[in-house]
Every structure is written in C-alpha cells, then in structure tokens.
Amino acid sequence: METGVPICHCGHESKIVTSWTDENPGRRFFGCKNYGRGSHCRFFAWYDAPLTPRARVEVVVAAAVVVAAEVV
Ligand SMILES: [Zn+2]
Predict the structure, then answer these.
(1) Is residue 2 one of the residues assigned to a domain?
(2) Given this model, what pLDDT does residue 2 score?
(3) Is the residue at 6 inside a domain?
(4) Full DSSP string of 16-41
(5) Does 58 map to a domain?
(6) Does residue 8 lie in a domain region?
(7) For 5-23, how does the pLDDT look when each residue is reduced to its tens digit (9 = 90+)?
(8) Which domain holds residue 42?
(9) How many A from CA of 27 to the centre of ligand 1?
C-alpha cells in the first residue's frame, strides 16, 4: 500500500513529529518511529515547508495563547 510516508533507514514507515526547537517551533518532520527507543536510526525529513521569520513568530504567539487559555 502506498501511503506517501517516507521509509526510514531501518525499513519502517516514518512518523510525523512536531519540532519545538527555537529554530523551528511547530514545524513537522518525518522521523524514525523507533528513535529514542534503542534505535540508532537518524532518519529525518521535513514535512512542512521552511518557516519564514514572520511565520515563526506567529506560531510562537499562537502556542502562547493556547497555553494561556488552558490556565484560565
Ligand atoms: Zn528507523
């Protein structure tokens, strides 16, 4: 079955993970589903297009609004 999901170095379908680094907040990428669970597979491919500086700021602001709403 063709799902369009990249296959990682260990032969599994990769999964979509959301990045929360300062450089790429909220940006999604494909990563090995075994990463962090004993696998040394370092498969990595971006799912979302690169963020512009303007978009990056908006993502951070939106995340802050969500956090504030949950507190209240
Ligand atoms: Zn893998």
Answers:
(1) no
(2) 54
(3) no
(4) EEE--SSSSTT-EEEE-TTBTTTB--
(5) yes
(6) no
(7) 999 999 999 999 999 999 9
(8) 15-71
(9) 20
